[in-house]
Every structure is written in C-alpha cells, then in structure tokens.
Amino acid sequence: MGRQMMSIRGTDGGRGVRVTFDETGRRLKAGEHAVREGALRTAVGRRRAGVAGIVALALALGGCGTLLSGGDKALPTFDLSAPSDFHAPRRGSGLIVVGPPTALAVLDTERIVVEPQPGQITYLGQAQWSDRLPALFQARLIESFENGNRGRSVGRAGDGLSADYMLLSDLRAFGLRTYQGGPEAVVEVSVKIVGANSGRIVAAQVFSGRAPATSTSGPDATRALDQASDEVFLQIVRWASSRF
Fold it and tell me: Which N-terminal stretch is annotated as signal sequence (predicted)?
C-alpha cells in the first residue's frame, strides 16, 4: 500500500491556506505535496493500465478460443455424401488403409472455397461444411470403398490395422469457381498407393470432377460440390479396386 496524505484547511500567518500532512503527522513543505501527489497518481494510473491489459488479454484469448473451437455454429451446415449402389470389381485381396488427405490452409477448414478469379480465394458467407474438409473427404472416401463392396478390405489409417497398402491423397482443388461462364464446382485430388512394407509408390493418378451450380447460395453450391466429389470418389474406388 502507498503512503497516505491528509489535507486540511487551516491558518498560516492569519491566511486561510490548505495544509497537508503525511501519515506520520509531519507537515509537508510547499512543493513536496505536489511531488507526492504526482507519484501517487502515476502509481494509480499504472495499476489501472495493468488491470485494463489483463482484461484485454482475457477477451483476446476468449476470441481465440472461439476461433479454434471450429466453425460458426450459427451458419447453415452442409455435408458430403458417398456414392452408393455401384460395384467396384476387385483384382486382389489386399487391405488398403485410407490416410487423411493433405491440403493447403485455405482448404483445411470448414469454410467453403469460392474462386471469383484465377488465383483469388474467398469463402461462402452463409454456409460451412460439417467438419474440416480433409476429415470429411477421408470419411466419405472410406464410405465409398465400403459401398463398392470393399468393406472388409478397407480401413482408416491409425486404427491399428495390418495393411498391405496405404492410400494417400492431396486435395488440390475443392470449391466453386465463378469465372469463365458461371459458377461451377471443381474437385481435383492427387492419389498415391504406397506399399505398407516397402514404402514405395506403386500407383499414382490425379482425379477430377466438375458440376455446374445454379447459384452461389449455400444449398446450390454444396449440391454441385457433392456431385463433383461423388464423381471423384467413384473414380478413385474403381481405379484402386482394379489394381489391388
């Protein structure tokens, strides 16, 4: 605690003046009171600034927590589907595990990408995916393998399965392009099959799918992206099944 000062109005030589004493009762000289009062104000100001800084930091961390917790729950949320009612003939009996796709930061999010111009990236303002895109893509690709009658020969990386092959993928494009004639869903994925024991790439190919969108609204955009991704899922499952 800082020292306390007491100021009273008294008389000094018959004149009405303000006389200031310190906490011990000693009368302060002229100018000494001003110095002490200035120091006290400075200390109080520093304390207030410190408290304000702590409050600001707490608010900032709270905002970061909101950002890190995932997508905006107030936005309409959309999912991808997996193709069904198709058959993918199998050439071999090996077990394939599907790893999580890699993706650039602009795609590694719940937000839905829009390209208004080549090389320019923005996002739909009133829509989001149900999960981060790489996790969502991985889940629907595994489901596509299962729907193509490969349920017993496909698994998820990290599940502790004794696999023969690993399917690795990279999301090159997954969004809505609004240039060159109107909105169009574009999906492009690079896929590699790697031997689980050798670590060698035994097959690799790039797959792509496109579908026109009637508008850039959330329902229309995600419907077109779902169609384009279904096309890619079918291509990947049939390609991998015909080789392994």
Answer: none
Phi, psi dihedral angles at 170 (to 5 degrees): -135, 125
Q: What does the pLDDT look like over 113-139, one tens digit per residue?
A: 999 999 999 999 999 999 999 999 999
pLDDT tens digit sequence for 33-68:
554 555 546 554 565 555 444 434 444 444 433 333
* Same domain, residue pair 144 and 177: yes
Residue 123 resides in a domain: yes
Domain of 14, in residue numbers: 6-68
Buried b or exposed e, range 9-35, using 16+ CB within 10 angstroms: eeeeeeeeeeebeeeeeeebeeeebee
DSSP 102: E
Residues 180 and 159: their CA atoms lie apart, in Å, by: 43
pLDDT score of 28: 52
In whole angstroms, what is the distance from residue 92 CA to residue 71 CA? 41
User: Whole-angstrom Cα distance, residue 129 to residue 218?
Assistant: 10
Do 27 and 90 have their domain in common? Answer: no
Q: What is the pTM of this model?
A: 0.70
